[in-house]
Each structure stands twice: as structure tokens, then as C-alpha cells.
Design goal:
The complex is a heterodimer. By secondary structure, chain A is an alpha/beta fold. Chain A has a single domain, classed as Rossmann fold (3-Layer(aba) Sandwich). In chain A, 45% of the residues lie in helices and 14% in strands. Chain B is an alpha/beta fold. Chain B has 2 domains: 141 residues, NADH:ubiquinone oxidoreductase-like, 20kDa subunit (Rossmann fold, 3-Layer(aba) Sandwich); 113 residues, no CATH class. Helices cover 30% and strands 14% of the residues of chain B. In chain B, the strands form 3 sheets. Chain B has a 6-stranded parallel beta sheet, with helices on both faces. Chain B is globular. Classes of the chains: A alpha/beta, B alpha/beta. Chains A and B meet through helix 2, helix 3, helix 4 and helix 5 of A and helix 3, helix 4, strand 8, helix 11 and helix 12 of B.
């Protein structure tokens, strides 16, 4: 039996000055690429706080794609170097929590690189198909939680009966 | 004096340091005793869950609850005390954000039992006996609470009125909170009773521009006493940690480890810390950046989330890490045939 193809959900944080325009350019040029990225436009990739990425993953995203101007070409002079360092810090932390860096990618794309950005999206989607869903909320499910609580409630009620 | 208020102090997954910190308000404890009858506090007096169960709902005026929720029994007590208390205070880091017990969220029940009861160097347990929740003795059923995979905070378990941060909360802050309760000058329910700024604001050290080529461990250098510790390469959590301790650790040449939790308006302390530290690394080369981080911060989770993992956005590590996923059947790739 053929299983349904897994469509990863990716949250994209794109820089207003380059990558968002690259995506826009890809659209105008009718470049075909995977529709799995929900793009959020930010003024700079340096605006991406690690908590944005963590929140996306915790809320059901299978991956996060951060896209910014090439190093040295930041509209805000050197913010994308901070992105580069935060990204390294974040991926090392995520790895320790069991989340592969394949799920959180950082790509550089200038406003003229719509084709390259589209290819990076396609590649990430294919890679996440192999890796599978993240489905983070499943990690928080306590297998026997309801039963355990009912049990202890019942015990205390019984004990109350005895002392009465 | 009119009717005294009723105070309860309870502990769940915690170390007992919070109770000691309450006593550190010294002779002011007499003022507390003048204002409140302590109706429930298993740490210092012979009171039982049964006593609380018999109270009508809302009997307790203030309950200071320390500790995270690790077992079904602790969850039961949290729900019981919520029902019986007018004001429930998550007292200390464990109740607020999981603290050190919550750091065990990098693992799960099976691994913890294995480490504690089977493989620990001081354990001799060839039969690999681990705690069970039920056993029969002479025809009677005896039971133990269920040990959860994931430590939860008090706020993730029941609605909490106020949070008092710190591991443990500093005695002057505890006193401030007690005064606020007695005078009825409490902030909006759900808020943290504490400072709205960071440890850096209380720290007397001189701050200049920070450029760090390598993070150092505390045993590697003897830091200069007047300059910001982070500038000297020590991984200080001050920039991302709530004030309230009067920068006790930096004042004695030791970096902040983040025990007061995230600052006002921040949920994920680790994310803020990553942001702060990434800004001070002095490199623009990805390979060098990776090296600086992996050499200087060998345990990123234990460093960024030492006190707050259970209350972070992810709350815990993945039960099946991505790198072990190749052992699971992979989902079908595009166009592949079964």
C-alpha cells in the first residue's frame, strides 16, 4: 500500500532586502518550486531571535529556513554576521536536544538569486521528506498520564472513606 | 489581632532549599507567624495531605508551592492545593521553570531508572529491579506514584497566581512578596513578583565593548575583579537573567548561572542567552565560530537552560533524536514505490 507523501511544513524567515525579493523574483519569473515554505518577511535576518525558530518547531513546523543577504552585503552593515553566529549557537543547542541541523537551515540569497533560493527550498523539502515529521507535541505526551492521575485520585478518595 | 491568615508551604520535585530560604528572612519569620497560621507544611511540621483534603475549598489564604511536577502524587498535591488556596504562589525556580530537576528533561523515565537503579557505579542490581507502581504483599495492593517522562512546571499543571523566581528566592525578595501579600499590594494575577530588569543592571562591574575570541571555564582563569566577566570570556548569564539577587555571583568573581530565570516579557531564557552571546563572539568565519562555540560551550543545553528547560519553548529533548531516526522506517520519498 502506498503511503501518502509527507509534505513538510517549513517556516521561512526572509530578509526584506534580499531573500524576500529573491522569492518575489522567483515568483515573477515563474520559477517552479515546492510550496512548503510559509514565508515571514523580516527587515533583516539579524532580526531572527532563536526563540522564533524554537516557537515554530514547538508549534508544529517540521523545519525552519532562514534566508538573508550574503555576508558583507547586509543592509544594516553587519547584522547577518550576528545571524551566522546565532545560527551556529542554535543548531549546536538543537542537536543536543535531538533536532538535526537539517531541519533549521541558513541560506544566503541576494535579490537576484531567485532561482538559487527556489533550489534551496526544493532541496530542503526533499531532505525533510527523508527525515520525516518533527511532530514536537508528541514528545510532551505522557503515555499513562490520565490513568496515573485517576488512580491516585481514587486512592486518596478511598483513604478519605477509611478515615471518616 | 483579627483572624489570622492561613499559610501553606509545600514542596514537590525540589531540594528543600526554598524552605531554608524562607527561614533566611531571620527574625521577620515572627512577623509571618503573627500574621499567618501555618496550616500545612510537611517540611517542618506533622501535617498530612488528609488535613488539606478535609478543608473546604479556598480555606488557605496563601500557598507557597516550591518544586516541579515529576510524579502523579506531586500533580495530585498541586491540584489539591490549587483547589484549597485563594492565592497560589509558584515559589522558586523549580515551580516556576523546572530548575535542576527539569534539566532531566534531556532524558526520560527509562533512562533515569537505568542510570539510578542499574548502571550507577555504586549500585549492585544484577536483576535490574526498578520501581514499579504496584505490588502485592500478603494479598494487599501497595502502590507508588507514577514517575513521569517529563518534568512540568506548576504553571503547566494548574493556574498559578504569582511567581517568585530564584534558586532559591533571595530572602529580601521573599520578604518583599510577603509584605505585598499582607498589604494587598499585589501585581496583576499571573505575574512575577520581582524585578523587571537583568542581573547586569545590578552588577557593579565595568562594561565596555565585548569581543570574545574564546569562552573560558571558571577554572581556566582568575578574572579581573572590576571588568565585566563576559568581556573576560567567562560565560556569564547576567544579560538574560532577571535581577533580584543583587548580582551575588558576579560580585564574588563568579559568573551568573541564570538561576533567577528569564527577564520580564521573555519566555525562553536560553534563546535570549544565545542571542546575547552570539553578539559578543568576535569572528566572521563560520568554521571558527563553530569551533569557539563547541570548545567553549561543551554542554549548550545545560548552559543555556540550566534552570529553565522545563519552561522553555521546547520543554524537553526529542524522545527519538533525529540522528536515530534512520532506525525507524523513513516516510516515502517522492515517487518511491513500496
Amino acid at each position: 500500500m502506498e503511503r501518502e507523501r509527507f509534505e513538510p511544513r517549513i517556516i521561512g524567515f526572509f530578509c526584506n532586502w534580499c531573500s524576500y525579493r529573491a522569492a518575489d523574483g522567483a515568483g515573477t519569473a515563474r520559477v517552479k518550486y515546492a510550496p512548503n515554505v510559509r514565508v515571514i518577511r523580516l527587515m533583516c535576518s539579524g532580526r531572527v531571535d532563536p526563540s522564533f525558530v524554537l516557537k515554530a518547531l514547538a508549534s508544529g513546523a517540521d523545519g525552519v529556513l532562514i534566508a538573508g543577504c550574503h555576508p558583507g552585503e547586509c543592509h544594516y552593515i553587519e547584522q547577518n554576521y550576528k545571524t551566522m553566529r546565532r545560527y551556529a549557537m542554535l543548531t549546536q543547542t538543537l542537536r543536543a536536544l535531538g533536532i538535526s541541523e537539517r531541519r533549521v537551515r541558513l541560506v544566503w540569497a541576494s535579490a537576484a538569486e531567485g532561482t538559487q533560493l527556489a533550489a534551496a527550498v526544493d532541496e530542503m523539502v526533499e531532505d525533510l521528506r527523508l527525515l520525516g515529521p518533527l511532530h514536537w507535541s508528541a514528545n510532551l505526551r505522557e503515555e499513562d498520564h490520565e490513568a496515573a492521575f485517576e488512580h491516585i485520585l481514587h486512592e486518596h478518595e478511598q483513604a478519605m472513606e477509611v478515615t471518616r | 489581632m483579627a483572624d489570622k491568615g492561613k499559610l501553606a508551604i509545600y514542596w514537590a520535585a525540589s531540594c528543600g532549599g526554598c524552605e531554608i530560604s524562607i527561614l533566611a528572612i531571620n527574625e521577620k519569620i515572627l512577623d509571618v507567624a503573627a500574621a499567618f497560621d501555618i496550616v500545612f507544611c510537611p517540611c517542618i511540621m506533622d501535617t498530612k495531605a488528609r488535613d488539606v483534603e478535609k478543608m473546604p475549598d479556598g480555606t488557605i489564604d496563601v500557598c507557597l508551592f516550591n518544586g516541579g511536577i515529576r510524579t502523579s502524587e506531586q500533580e495530585y498535591m498541586a491540584r489539591l492545593l490549587r483547589q484549597k488556596s485563594k492565592v497560589l504562589v509558584a515559589f522558586g525556580s523549580c515551580a516556576q521553570e523546572g530548575c535542576i530537576p527539569g534539566l532531566a528533561n534531556v532524558t526520560d523515565r527509562a533512562e533515569i531508572f537505568d542510570a539510578v537503579y542499574c548502571t550507577s557505579a555504586s549500585v549492585d542490581n544484577p536483576g535490574r529491579a526498578v520501581p514499579q507502581t504496584e505490588t502485592r504483599v500478603n494479598g494487599f495492593l501497595l502502590s507508588l506514584p507514577v514517575f513521569y517522562d517529563t518534568v512540568r512546571t506548576l504553571g503547566q499543571t494548574v493556574p498559578v497566581d504569582y511567581y517568585l523566581p530564584g534558586c532559591p528566592p533571595e530572602a529580601p525578595r521573599i520578604w518583599d512578596a510577603i509584605v505585598a501579600i499582607l498589604e494587598g499590594k499585589l501585581p496583576a494575577p499571573g505575574s512575577v513578583i520581582g524585578a523587571q530588569t537583568t542581573v547586569c543592571d545590578e552588577c557593579p562591574r565595568q562594561r565596555n565593548e565585548k569581543k570574545v575570541k574564546a569562552f573560558k571555564r571558571t577554572w581556566q582563569i582568575i578574572p579581573d575583579e572590576d571588568t565585566c566577566l563576559l568581556e573576560q570570556g567567562l560565560l556569564c548569564c547576567g544579560p538574560a537573567t532577571r535581577a533580584g539577587c543583587d548580582a551575588r555571583c558576579p560580585r564574588v568573581n563568579s559568573p551568573c548561572i541564570g538561576c533567577y530565570g528569564p527577564n520580564a516579557g521573555v519566555q525562553d531564557q536560553g534563546a535570549r542567552l544565545m542571542t546575547a552571546l552570539a553578539s559578543v563572539i568576535d569572528s566572521q568565519d563560520p568554521a571558527e565560530i563553530d569551533r569557539i562555540i563547541s570548545e567553549g560551550i561543551p554542554d549548550p543545553v545545560g548552559t543555556f537552560y540550566r534552570f529553565s528547560l522545563a519552561n522553555s519553548l521546547l520543554r524537553r529533548a526529542a524522545k527519538v533524536p533525529d540522528e536515530q531516526r534512520h532506525e525507524l522506517p523513513l516516510p516515502k520519498a517522492a515517487g518511491a514505490q513500496e
